[in-house]
Structures are given as structure tokens and as C-alpha cells.
Amino acid sequence: MLRLVTSIGEAWRVASQSIDRLDARLLVEYVADCTHVDLLVRPTRALSTDQVARLAALVKRRSGGEPLAYLVNSAEFYTLEFQVSPAVLIPRPETELLVELAIQRLQSLPAPRIVDLGTGCGVLAVTLKCLYPAATVSAVDLSLAALEVAGRNAARHAAEVSFFAGDWYAPLGEARFDLIVANPPYVAYADPHLQQNGLPFEPQMALSDGVAGGDGLACIRAIIGGAARHLLPDGWLLIEHGYNQSADVRNLLWSAGLSDVASWLDLSQVERVSGACLR
Q: Which residues bind S-adenosyl-L-methionine (predicted)?
């Protein structure tokens, strides 16, 4: 049992009996403030009684399905480390596709204006500001708790981002942008996926639009519907969506009068992002 261990190597071995070996290693490193090399080279390094107790509590939470990122308060996105908490979604690798597509559209603009709608912990806004220091970057979220996390991440990476609390475009007034990016809630209400893979621990308002009997597209409709009023000429909207929503999203983009409508594949070969331009 973990309460009987005295060293980091022993803690890793015992914790691995309850949870995934990699998760156990990362929790030991987090609690002991050590590296993977320390575990391999100095496995007899001592753990305090308090550290053992903290580790045991974290292992119990992980074995109960709580995501590792919430336990270590950190997640990586586009090579940067971001603070996360249960107030925000955990960044997913597939969302990095939004960054790649944004880079392609911003490379010819010396000082682009960018807005991130539904910023969560701020990964898109902060990453794009780090990539384009001359950009003017704004970020919007309805959750004040999420904006607090995003603000800390912006400070951590010295990224100057203007944060706004509100519903999509509402706090932005008449502002227009070269690029709108969004990773909004798109899982349909009561979808069984919401009860799997740690999702019950994540903020439901960031996962689903909450429309009973809906198709999960309510937030996407609002974002696309307001895009033309907030895009500069030749500006782009890029929006992440569900694995089976690309055709519907493209139809919404066409209906909104946007041009160059397209969808792009993520690393799993799923159409994960769709977008269009205001010509």
C-alpha cells in the first residue's frame, strides 16, 4: 500500500498497481518535484509522509476516472504548458489543427487582429499571441472562472491578450478581426460520450450547448451567424466541431454568405475544423 512506501521508486511501483504506469510516474514526479531521470537514477530518494499521503489521494482520484491534467494542474498544447482546472476543458491535440490553419492565414499579415471565442484556459489566444507578437489578440468566455485561468496562462507566457466576459460577440461591440477562432461546445445534450473518458469531470457548459433534444450546433450557429459582422475583408473564421458535424457546419457557413468554405482533417483523419472567408 502507498502509505507504507518510503522512496520515489517504490511509490512508482506501488502506484502502478492501481493506475496506468505512465500516469503513476507523472503523479510521483509531480508530488516529489522530481524528473523521470531522478526516478530511474535515484529511485531510493526519500518521500516525506506528507508527500506519500498526497500521492495516495491523487492515485485514488485517478483510479476513479479523474483526468490526470486536473490532478497535476497542467496540460501541454502546441509545445507550451498551460495551467488547467475543473473550470476549463483540458486542451486536446486535435485542437492544434486550429493553430496550424491559423498560421497559414496569418503569415502574410504584419499585425493581424485575432479573437478567440470560448477561450477556456486560453490555449488558442495565448499560443497565437506567442507565435505573432505583433498581433492584437482578444479572447471571450462566458465563464469568469475560465477567464481567471486564461489570464494566468497569458501572464505565464508573457502574452498580452485582452479578455472579455460575455456571450460570443456580445462584449466585442463593433470590433472586426482578420481571424476568428473558436472551439465551442458541440456535443449534443445527453450524448452518451459525455459520460465517458473523464468527461463527467470537465465543465459541461464547455462541452455541450445544453439544448435538450438538440444537435449540438446551437453555439456554432451563433458564432457563424455573427461572423460576417465581425470579420474584416478577407478575414477568416475557423471553428472546431464534432466528428460528424462537418457537412452541417459547411452548410451553415455557406448560408451565412461566406466564401472558400472547407473542412480539414485532424491527425485521426476526422474532419475536425471547418472554416470560411469573408470576401
A: 118-122, 141, 168, 183
Residue 115's DSSP bridge partners are 138, 180
**What pTM did the predictor assign?**
0.92
Does the annotation list 9 as a binding residue? no
Any known ligand binding at 183?
yes
36 and 79 in a single domain? The answer is no
Phi, psi of 43 (to 5 degrees): -65, -15
Residue 119 marked in a binding site: yes
Task: Confirm whether 194 is domain-assigned.
Answer: yes
Whether residue 34 is annotated as binding a ligand: the answer is no
Q: What is the pLDDT of residues 14-23, one digit of tens each?
A: 999 999 999 9
CA distance 38 to 59: 20
Residues 55 and 87 in one domain: no
Give φ, ψ of 112 to 5 degrees. -70, 155
